[in-house]
Amino acid sequence: MSNHKFGRRELLLLSAASALLPQSAMSDDVIDLAWADLLPEGQTALPRSLQGIIEHDSAEQFGQQPVATGVRTDWNGKTVRMPGFIVPLELDGTGVTSFILVPYVGACVHVPPPPANQLVLVTTEKPYQSDGLFESVEVTGMFGTAALKTQLADIGYVISADKVAPY
C-alpha cells in the first residue's frame, strides 16, 4: 500500500467539487446506488470487466483506461450508499483517509482502470482500518460529480464519506 498524496491540482479540483455540494443536502434519506446507476441515461451495457468477466490476455486489458461516456448528476448533493472495493490513496497512521472506490477486485491495480464514470474518489475524516485491496466495503456519504486525475486513473465521482463499513 503506498502513501500517495494528492498533487496541488488534484486537491484544488476536489475542493472545487466539494464546494459545489450544498452542505444542507444531508438528510435522513439515503439512496442506494449500484454501479450501473453511474452510467449515463440510456447506456445499459457495462464493460465486460464490470460484469465480472476479466479477460487477462485480451488486447483491451493491455490498453489504457477506457474513455467515459459521461456522468450522471442526478444524485449531486444527496446522501448515497454504495458497495465496492478500496484502492488506497492516502493513509493516516494505519487507516485509509482517501481511496478510489472501484466496482471489482483489482481495478486500477492488476488491469487497466474502468472508465471515469465507474470510479469514485472517497474521502473520510475518520481513517478506515482497511483489511486490504480485496476487502469489500459500503460507503455512505454526500455524492457529487468531479473531473479528477490521479496517477492511477481519471475519476468521475466523489463521495465525502460519513461512514465506511465492511460490506
UniProtKB/TrEMBL annotation:
Pfam families: DUF3299. InterPro entries: DUF3299, TAT_signal. This is DUF3299 domain-containing protein. The keyword Signal applies. Transmembrane segments: none annotated. Residues 1-27 form the signal peptide. The lineage of its organism: Bacteria, Pseudomonadati, Pseudomonadota, Alphaproteobacteria, Rhodobacterales. Gene3D superfamilies: Protein of unknown function (DUF3299). Keywords: Signal. It comes from Shimia thalassica.
